[in-house]
């Protein structure tokens, strides 16, 4: 055993160990290609060290030549891996220079194997002994190959490439990038320049020393390995952080009564935390299957849950399903499943489930309060219209009475005029229908009402409202004008509530218009659509208008300008319109009357129900 | 009295109540004409029209009250019966002050409407008769000479022939001749009759009265 053997073996062993380590890491993270190139370079350095050792111990010129020739294969792999590593690790570098270097090294390899000896020598004439670390080793003497300069020049190109990439990484100005740039850029450049000097001195025949190439590369390998190890230790830290985050998440989930779950679709097995089992009152030991989960869906929600389930299975992606469960204890609770379905790997869904009973109850309460407020608003409003509504009803009722009385007289005649009697019956039926319609309209507005969603043709809704206030308007000698856009706009919403908004705005308009001279009094309702996406309804009047600065105030609850007003009408309007996904506002201008506008999103391609 | 039959003119902007009211009135034996606009009725009335109007109070364009005012302005004697969907006091007061015959809710029973129409027609016929007799009287008064007219006015005021003769500076006998001529032309026999005639003809209006000299 001597020092040369010890040192070169150590170099080879270190490089092989580091290379294998990183290769194993790469095998589990296939996308980390920088690690792969590093491992390849590292293992090749080990091979090169072995080749150098064999050359030093060579028994004949032929053996030396053969090994030197083949040593260029690991050198090629080292250099190519090195530049790819740099390119990927820094995320910087000139791509064209990279390919130029690869091309140059390929050419060097071709020249190496096509010549009589190697790219370094055209011929090795003799081996001379050389004393290294107290041991005699073989050093070659021969005729240098002029192509050797080309190979050395390509090494300088690599230095250039590395320096450029390192500079680019430095300029990014992140501390971690700067450290990398210095460590890798400096170590690589040093080892490459060292190699160039080593090879240049040797091949020009100025000195006769053995190859120390693997030595210079080992610095690079160690420096690199240090860098990559820093990354590894960081990953370990991250994994620890992740664990902590998970613990925190579990605590938060516990506090928020969130249950985590994961469902293996193919095996129909749920993995779930205790919360889910508690929420659904499952026994701890029973396996949870889809059937078990769906078993306690509230009968009223069954159809909706089935539909949602089919949609999730077909569509994948994120989802949320809210429904009621009927527990074994007889209790009914609202639950919400939030999750994501992943199609790959046989199908998997994961997410959380939570108890949203309180949310739903308070939401329900809020809706009820809003409905009650809206209802009282409607009752108040119709109270204002009472006398004209009485007129509206008395009109057909009076006609029915007159017709009946006329019929009595006609029947007393001999012979009775049957033709006329028939006409009377037709008229009575029509008037009765008309009175019925008025009553139905009033009833729908007056009865407390559960919010529902329908597709509505807005224009006919407006017409109904205008017919309701028609006699009030004529009693107040205010003209009602209507101007509708060309396309019938279909919106989705609650017809009673939207009618309430229209009624409110029109009645306000009537009140305002009354202050003007009779000939100029009007309230006009018009519609307009924007890009077939938004419908705008405008209610304007000939009144004094809304003073500037009061435009948003009038939508506040309990703000009123009328001596007998409560100040809730417009605030209810705003609540209703916003619940429909629209906006309501008033144009404030001096003189020229008030113009109220509201928007509603149009339902594309839906027929009115 | 002769002339065309009295007609009930029914005006309502709404078709069905218009038809129903007309039917009842026809069945009750009246001649009826219907209009959906008050303006149309005003256009089609002539001087010879007789009867009454049954009109809706609330109508677009010319309202019932405006129709009544227009009828009075045009010197028509047609009384108006108003129909209303719901009775409100201010409108009722306005209508009655304007000389309406009645103000009826549409849902009131037939008797009320028919009674009002009957009264309206009676009133119209009385008014027409009064106007006819007054017209005849005025025609007769027209045949008097101006001196006879002056004498008549003085007589009606209760002055004696002597006083009249003194006032006018004529002979008492001449006054007597004028008085005879007046009673003959007007076909009356007593001063009382003369007085009531003059009253009827509106000659005793404070404005129309010519004040005697020196007073």
Major pleated sheet of chain A: 5 strands, antiparallel
First-residue to last-residue Cα separation of chain B: 45 Å
Shape of chain A: elongated
Report the sheet with the most strands of chain B, covering strand number, pairing sense and barrel closure: 5 strands, parallel
Give the termini separation of chain A.
Answer: 98 Å
The domain tally of chain B reads 2
- Briefly note the CATH topology name of the largest domain in chain A: Rhopdopsin 7-helix transmembrane proteins
Biggest interface between chains: A-B, 28 and 24 residues
Question: How would you describe the overall organization of this protein?
Answer:
The complex is a heterodimer of chains A (about 600) and B (about 220). Chain A has 16 helices and 14 strands. By secondary structure, chain A is α+β, with helices and mostly antiparallel strands. Chain A has 3 domains: about 5-235, Rhopdopsin 7-helix transmembrane proteins (Up-down Bundle); about 255-355, Beta-Lactamase; about 365-600, 2-Layer Sandwich (Heat Shock Protein 90). In chain A, the strands form 4 sheets. In chain A, strands 4-3-7-6-5 form a 5-stranded antiparallel sheet, sandwiched between helices. In chain A, a hairpin with a 2-residue loop joins strand 1 and strand 2. In chain A, helix 11 runs parallel beside helix 15 (about 495-515), helix 11 packs across helix 16 and helix 12 (about 385-410) runs antiparallel to helix 13 (about 420-445). The model of chain A has no long low-confidence stretch (mean pLDDT about 85). Chain B is α/β, with parallel strands linked by helices and about 220 residues long. Chain B folds into 2 domains: about 5-135, 3-Layer(aba) Sandwich (Rossmann fold); about 140-200, Winged helix-like DNA-binding domain superfamily/Winged helix DNA-binding domain (Arc Repressor Mutant, subunit A), CATH 1.10.10. Chain B is built from 9 helices and 5 strands; from the N terminus they run βαβαβαβαβααααα. A 5-stranded parallel sheet of chain B has the order 2-1-3-4-5, with helices on both faces. In chain B, helix 6 crosses helix 9 (about 190-200) and helix 7 (about 160-170) packs across helix 8. The radius of gyration of chain B is 24 Å and the shape is elongated. The two termini of chain B are about 45 Å apart. Residues about 205-215 of chain B have low confidence and may be disordered. The interface of A and B includes residues 392, 401, 430 and 471 of A.
């Amino acid at each position: 055993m001597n020092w040369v053997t010890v040192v070169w073996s150590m170099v080879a062993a270190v490089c092989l160990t580091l290379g294998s380590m990183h290769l194993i890491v790469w095998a589990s993270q296939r996308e980390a290609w920088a690690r792969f190139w590093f491992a390849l370079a590292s293992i090749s350095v080990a091979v090169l060290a072995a080749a150098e050792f064999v050359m030093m111990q060579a028994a004949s010129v032929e053996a030396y030549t053969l090994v030197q020739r083949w040593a260029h294969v690991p050198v090629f792999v080292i250099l190519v891996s090195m530049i790819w590593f740099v390119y990927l690790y820094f995320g910087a570098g000139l791509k064209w220079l990279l390919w130029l270097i690869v091309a140059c090294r390929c050419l060097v390899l071709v020249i190496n194997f096509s010549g009589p000896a190697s790219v370094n020598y055209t011929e090795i004439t003799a081996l001379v002994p050389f004393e290294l670390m107290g041991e005699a080793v073989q050093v070659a003497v021969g005729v240098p190959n002029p192509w050797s300069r080309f190979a050395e020049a390509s090494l300088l190109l690599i230095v250039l490439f590395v320096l450029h990439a390192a500079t680019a990484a430095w300029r990014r100005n992140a501390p971690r990038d700067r450290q990398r740039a210095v460590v890798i850029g400096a170590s690589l450049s040093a080892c490459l320049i060292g190699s160039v000097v080593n090879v240049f001195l040797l091949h020009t025949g100025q000195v006769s020393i053995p190859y120390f190439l693997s030595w210079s590369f080992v610095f690079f390998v160690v420096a690199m390995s240090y860098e990559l190890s820093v990354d590894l230790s960081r990953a370990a830290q991250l994994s620890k952080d992740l664990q902590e985050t998970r613990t925190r998440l579990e605590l938060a989930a516990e506090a928020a009564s969130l249950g985590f779950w994961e469902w293996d679709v193919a095996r129909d097995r749920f993995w779930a935390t205790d919360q889910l089992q508690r929420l659904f009152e499952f026994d701890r030991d029973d396996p949870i299957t889809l059937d078990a989960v769906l078993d306690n869906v509230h009968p009223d929600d069954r159809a909706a849950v089935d539909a949602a389930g089919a949609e999730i299975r077909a569509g994948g992606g994120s989802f949320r399903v809210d429904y009621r469960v009927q527990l074994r204890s007889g209790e009914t609770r609202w639950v919400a499943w939030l999750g994501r379905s992943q199609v790959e790997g046989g199908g998997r869904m994961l997410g959380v489930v939570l108890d949203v009973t309180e949310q739903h109850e308070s939401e329900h309460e809020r809706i009820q309060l809003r409905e009650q407020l809206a209802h009282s608003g409607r009752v108040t409003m119709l109270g204002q219209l009472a006398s004209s509504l009485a007129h509206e009803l008395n009109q057909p009722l009076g006609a029915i009475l007159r017709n009946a009385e006329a019929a009595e007289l006609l029947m007393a005649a001999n012979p009775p005029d049957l033709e006329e009697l028939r006409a009377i019956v037709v008229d009575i039926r029509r008037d009765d229908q008309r009175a019925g319609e008025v009553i139905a309209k009033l009833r729908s507005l007056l009865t407390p009402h559960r919010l529902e969603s329908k597709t509505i043709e807005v224009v006919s809704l407006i017409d109904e409202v205008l017919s309701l206030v028609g006699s009030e308007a004529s009693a107040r000698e205010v003209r009602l004008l209507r101007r509708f856009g060309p396309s019938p706009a279909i919106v989705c919403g609650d017809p009673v509530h939207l009618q309430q908004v229209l009624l409110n705005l029109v009645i306000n308009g009537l009140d305002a218009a009354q202050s003007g001279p009779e000939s100029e009094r009007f309230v006009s309702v018009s519609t307009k659509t924007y890009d077939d996406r938004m419908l705008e309804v405008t209610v304007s009047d000939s009144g004094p208008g809304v003073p500037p600065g009061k435009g948003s105030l009038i939508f506040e609850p309990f703000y009123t300008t009328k001596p007998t007003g409560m100040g809730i009408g417009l605030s209810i309007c705003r609540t209703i319109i916003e619940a429909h996904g629209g906006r309501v506002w008033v144009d404030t201008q001096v003189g020229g009357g008030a113009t109220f506008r509201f928007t509603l999103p149009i339902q594309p391609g839906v027929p009115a129900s | 009295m002769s002339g065309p039959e009295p007609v009930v003119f029914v005006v309502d902007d709404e078709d069905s109540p218009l038809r129903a009211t007309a039917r009842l009135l026809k069945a009750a034996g009246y001649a009826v004409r219907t209009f959906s606009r008050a303006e149309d009725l005003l256009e089609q009335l002539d001087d010879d029209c007789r009867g009454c109007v049954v009109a809706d109070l609330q109508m677009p364009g010319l309202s019932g009250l405006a129709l009544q005012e227009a009828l009075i302005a045009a010197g028509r004697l047609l009384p108006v019966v108003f129909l209303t969907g719901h009775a409100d006091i201010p409108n009722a007061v306005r209508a009655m002050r304007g000389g309406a015959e009645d103000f009826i809710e549409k849902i009131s029973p037939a008797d009320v409407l028919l009674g009002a129409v009957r009264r309206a027609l009676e009133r119209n016929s009385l008014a027409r008769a009064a106007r006819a007799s007054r017209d005849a009287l005025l025609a007769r008064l027209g045949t008097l000479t101006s001196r006879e007219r002056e004498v008549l006015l003085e007589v009606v005021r209760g002055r004696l022939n002597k006083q009249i003769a003194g006032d006018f500076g004529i002979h008492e006998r001449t006054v007597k001749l004028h008085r005879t001529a007046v009673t003959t032309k007007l076909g009356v026999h007593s001063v009382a009759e003369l007085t009531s005639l003059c009253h009827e003809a509106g000659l005793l209006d404070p404005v129309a009265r010519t004040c005697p000299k020196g007073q």
